[in-house]
Design goal:
The structure holds two protein chains of two kinds. Chain A is α/β, with parallel strands linked by helices. Chain A contains ten helices and 20 strands. Chain A has two domains: about 290 residues, FAD/NAD(P)-binding domain (3-Layer(bba) Sandwich), CATH 3.50.50.60; about 160 residues, Succinate dehydrogenase/fumarate reductase flavoprotein, catalytic domain (Flavocytochrome C3, Chain A, domain 1, Alpha-Beta Complex), CATH 3.90.700. In chain A, about 55% of the residues are buried. Chain B is about 65% helix and about 0% strand. Chain B is elongated. The chains are: A alpha/beta, B mainly alpha. The structure holds flavin-adenine dinucleotide and iron/sulfur cluster (SF4) (2 copies).
Chain lengths: ~450, ~350
Amino acid sequence: MTSPDIAIIGGGNAALCAAITAAEAGARVLILETAPKPYRGGNSRHTRNFRCMHHGPLGPLVDSYTEEEYLADLIKVTGGKTDEGLARLAIRTSEECLPWMEEHGVRFQPSLSGTLSLARTNAFFLGGGKSLVNAYYLTAEKLGVQVEYEAAVTHLELDDDRVTRVDYTRHGQTHTITPKAVVVASGGFQADTDWLARAWGPAAKNFLIRGTPYNRGVVLADLLDQGVEQVGDPTQCHAVAIDGRAPKFDGGIVTRLDCVPFSIVVNKDAQRFYDEGEDVWPKRYAIWGRLVAAQPEQVGYVIIDAKSLELFMPSVFPPIQADTLEDLAEKMGLPADALVQTVSAFNDACGDTSGFHPTELDGVTTTGLTPPKTNWARPITEPPFYGYSLRTGVTFTYLGLKVDETAQCAIGNRPVTNLWAAGETMAGSILGQGYLAGFGMTIGTVFGRIAGKEAAAHANAN
Amino acid sequence: MQMQTDLLQEARRQAEICNACRYCEGYCSVFPALHAERAFSDGDLTQLANLCHNCRGCYYACQYTAPHEFDLNLPQALANVRQDSWEELAFPRAAGKAFQKNGVLIAVASVIGFALLFWAARVLASVGGEGFYAVLSHNAMVAIFLPAFLFPLVSIAVSLRRYWRHIDAGPFRPAHLIAALRQAASMKNLKGGHGDGCNFEDEDRFTHARRAVHQAVMYGFLLCFAATSVATVMHYMLDMPAPYRLFSVPKLLGISGGLLLVVGCFEMIRLKLRSDRTLGAAGAFGGEVAFIGLLGFTGFSGLALYAFGQTAATPTLLAVHLGAVLAFFLLAPFTKMAHGFYRLTALTADAGRSRK
Ligand SMILES: Cc1cc2nc3c(=O)[nH]c(=O)nc-3n(C[C@H](O)[C@H](O)[C@H](O)COP(=O)(O)OP(=O)(O)OC[C@H]3O[C@@H](n4cnc5c(N)ncnc54)[C@H](O)[C@@H]3O)c2cc1C
Ligand code: SF4
Ligand code: SF4
């Protein structure tokens, strides 16, 4: 094919926002998406909302959510490891993103049942991320954007401070194009478990990948090898505790388990290892990814009894059920004696449970137990007993390309004149660690649009 | 009642996945009802299935459709349960089993309808009647059509009662029926939750085509039905027997209704032919298309009768039209026609649920 003005690598939210913006600016755009059409859209197809600043009610969002409050929330979760300039840019621009998204086909819905706490801060996509991705592909097509599926980019040839060539393979054949500008929006590297294992140690082989199997960091590695500036730490990733029976890739949202606060969690030796009631679950589920990763064989087991079964959102796999703890232990492959002992030690440490309140920090705590359970501590006594296994589920990695406020990449302190990056692949430029729900889509939308605009301006001028 | 357990089990499996996901909550009434449960009885699933109008929004939006191992296809799973429920709840059940999925049988029944009317016209022709009654005496018409009209009403009433019990809907409240009628009149759900329509005939592109066409068919049918009712009233209460002039209430209703019905049915079949059949009930396609064909043909033959009512073709046209009407009415409880009644009942039950 003849070379387009702009090649966009990736087919998720950031790539599509860039492609649409560039095409609207008059550029001829080609999207190279490594996934086949049914799996297009990377991790974006698994999302449900984006976090949006707003003054007064906006679309599905109630009240208001100011720049300062948003930034404060961000700094809290990242422990201050935030690039404030870029963060403010993302936050401020998020407000105009919502109407832009609607104009380009995205539809919103009120906060989903079970997520009322997000009704003010996060705008939910009707139908979820895949419907957002579908809408963007339709819009892009209308604007004349070309899309090649199953097109795996393998190499960007850098000549000093310019990308001169893009190589990709498709159906076993190698192709080369020479676009005027390139936007990298190909996500992190979490699906390459060898790379994860190099960064994390062999334990990473037991991690599950919550999203797409196609984000293997091929382009990221290629660019970093050629000296393009890097940001973030390869050992940093966003990981949560999910149902251990989830598929290796692409299990998505339905594999989450919300029952930990009402449970005790033990390792494969049937020993507890952390305070299950430390805080409400949305604030704690990310640390449990790491806690489980630190246990033998990277696995945990949640134990609850009948009275807690209906206190949390149902998950995709039914719990393992037994009438006695011994039977449950056997079904779950745990040492029965040890489990019975752990549970009775826990039960003995429980006190007055009359203040139990499932949705608030209720202070119903254990006494004299290590580790303690500081909220929702009710004895596990009422059969049938239920169990789930827990594994570490990686959402995305932080290592990425360093960009400036125009989303442009750099090499040796100079900009790469025709290379921009957007989305997960540059998110490390803003967040050093930690994560705020809905911020990934904000980064992708804001920086995707910036990258598209800048790349088009460059292509139109050359 | 013996619904197919494999179909129910598959719908249950998928509903449990949706319940852990909830991304489609805003599309239609199915999801709020689904998310209100933790476990799904056969009755719950039947109710969800009848709340679904197969807009396919949730299929194209789903991140778990094949080739993903979760293999979500909720529109299909619910269509299968819905189809099965109509067959199982039909009274008599054997008729539901026979006709719901069988386009050929529907065609055969229509031809029998024509033949019966031709025979009746020959044997029961009246001597002194005017207009249509010259072909078939008024009493003969009543003798044929009164039972043909009452039978489907009784049959559907029995089925809906069975349905109400099966889904365990509790006491019936008229206010809930009114809420349901209001939703049906505007076909709120066919707008797809965001007002852009549904994903029926053009993959993930939203259009209003199906809603528009469905409105045409429904209002066309209701207008035709009104035409007949008005004529009946005029005949019996006002002593104004047919034939009527062009600018009379029955004719105006009948002509506008007939046109809507013909165009609507034709377009509906075209949409169906373009849609992806794997998102509907297995094996039901032929029966659905045959039913729509029969409905459209009923409208068409009615219009032809208006157009050529005073010619030598009248006896033939009348027999064909009345034959189609007869087949349509007798088959109503056992064809796609039944869906309107089930859907209204499902919406009524849902209004009851959501106001609890
Ligand atoms: C289960 C889950 C739920 C989430 N929920 C939310 C949420 O509700 N809100 C939120 O803000 N964030 C959420 N996130 C995070 C969010 O998914 C990401 O921040 C966001 O989607 C990143 O968008 P992106 O376009 O940068 O990357 P992606 O959407 O992952 O797109 C990367 C694209 O690059 C393609 N690609 C990769 N390598 C190549 C190559 N070599 N050649 C060509 N193409 C390539 C991939 O196929 C893919 O299309 C969630 C993540 C997961 C896993
Ligand atoms: S159809 Fe798919 S996306 Fe929609 S709620 Fe069900 S599982 Fe979620
Ligand atoms: S096909 Fe349409 S009506 Fe049926 S469940 Fe899906 S979104 Fe609802």
